[in-house]
């Protein structure tokens, strides 16, 4: 299996602070979507990144199917509602610790 870094970047740098009510609803759907992916084992982790320069978040996905990655992206509420961009990068030399804390 290969690990992939999935990065969502909002269209506005201050998005986290200036979300409209509609955008907040979409972000709640986005979190629910990624919680489901994490609980099912598709994603190892997800969450926002505390970057003072811009609003973005990541997920780490483990799969050997690029089709599955494309499906994850296309079904993500932030994409279906055009709140930003998603980039997906393979992590070819991932090292995991043996005993998660």
Features:
single chain, 101 residues, alpha+beta, Alpha-Beta Plaits, four-stranded antiparallel sheet
Total domains = 1
Distance between the termini: 22 Å
* Count of β-strands: 4
Report the structural category: alpha+beta
CATH superfamily caption: Dimeric alpha+beta barrel
| Count of helical stretches | 4
State the order of secondary-structure elements, H for helix, E for strand: EHHEEHHE
Q: What is the CATH first-level class name?
A: Alpha Beta
User: Roughly what fraction of the amino acids lie in strands?
Assistant: 25-35%
Strand order of the largest sheet: 2-3-1-4
- Classify the fold: give the CATH topology: Alpha-Beta Plaits
Task: Briefly characterize the structure.
By secondary structure, this protein is of the alpha+beta class. It is built from four helices and four strands; from the N terminus they run E-H-H-E-E-H-H-E.
């Amino acid at each position: 299996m290969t690990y992939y870094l999935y990065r969502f970047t909002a269209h506005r740098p201050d998005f986290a602070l200036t979300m409209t009510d509609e955008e907040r609803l979409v972000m709640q759907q986005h979190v629910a979507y990624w919680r489901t992916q994490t609980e099912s084992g598709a994603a190892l982790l997800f969450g926002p990144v505390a970057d003072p320069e811009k609003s973005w978040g990541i997920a780490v996905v483990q799969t050997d199917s690029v089709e599955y990655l494309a499906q994850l992206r296309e079904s993500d509420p932030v994409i279906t509602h055009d709140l930003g961009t998603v980039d997906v990068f393979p992590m070819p030399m991932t090292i995991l610790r043996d005993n998660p804390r």
